[in-house]
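Narrative progress, year one. The postdoctoral researcher (J.K.) led the effort to move from monomer predictions toward full complexes, under supervision of the PI. The following entry was the first complex the group processed end to end, covering 325 residues in total.
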Amino acid sequence: MFSSARYVRQSLTPLFKQSVVPTKRFYHPKVIDHYQNPRNVGSLDKTLVNVGTGLVGAPACGDVMRLQIQVDDSTGIIQDVKFKTFGCGSAIASSSYVTELVRGKTIDEAIKIKNAEIAKELSLPPVKLHCSMLAEDAVKAAIKDYKSKQMAA
Amino acid sequence: MFRNQLQRIALFSTRSSLLRVTIRSSKIKVTPTLLPTSISQTRQYSVTTQGIPTTSQITELTPNEFHSISGEYLETLFDHLEYLGESNPSIDVEYSQGVLTLDLPPNGTYVINKQPPNKQIWLSSPVSGPDRFDLVEGKWVSLRNGLKLGDVLREEISGVIGEQVPLEGLDD
């Protein structure tokens, strides 16, 4: 009885492997690189007038991004940028990559960043395009916050 | 040795039954209808970065209404696409558990799914990119650009097929 059970298990193993292995999906190496070595993680002093903070995403959906920019008031250039993301590998990689993109840009240039640019760089699959859109939204929200602070000041 | 194993099994089964009891009792504590109402009352997602407030139509939609309306929408879409697939063998469409996957060469793969936490339908298009749609006056509308989901799909699918695809019953 035992031997027949073992026989069944052995004969099933290749079938199991066949059905599981091809459906496995892997993150692109660039996503893994940003995930393991995220760039510009941290926070800036949100009380400063030239710091804009963007907070986007829904905890219920599993993705929350906070992105902060520090802007040079005279030139409009983004001097410093920090982010913190709670979410999947693609969400973390998207926000990490977008911090590299916006640093050194003026706010007018940064607001034009499109999710397609992020998705292309990271080779995101269809289901993960939404992560790149969240990163685009985070930049726009941070710029909006910076602008409203400037208006008030 | 055999008895030892039996004891272990007995011990395990009592442990798991204990565990089940604790889970059951903790479930009872959670059940008060706090969860669905708190979700429907507070919008936890930034729909537009311009900060356009969400309408009461969206916040008042109950999770059950959302599931029946979005489920019906996706099933209608699936039926249309399956029908299209009969005359266009390159089209491949799958629908399960609120996620519709459409392979539409040469464009690529579309994913259209229910997003219950914020009562939206999400679209990932290889042509127009990602977008999120809210139920406004019975139509699924993107609050980012004002486009209707049905119109976006009609345009992109018609472009591939080479003739106007009506997709009846979808935001028309």
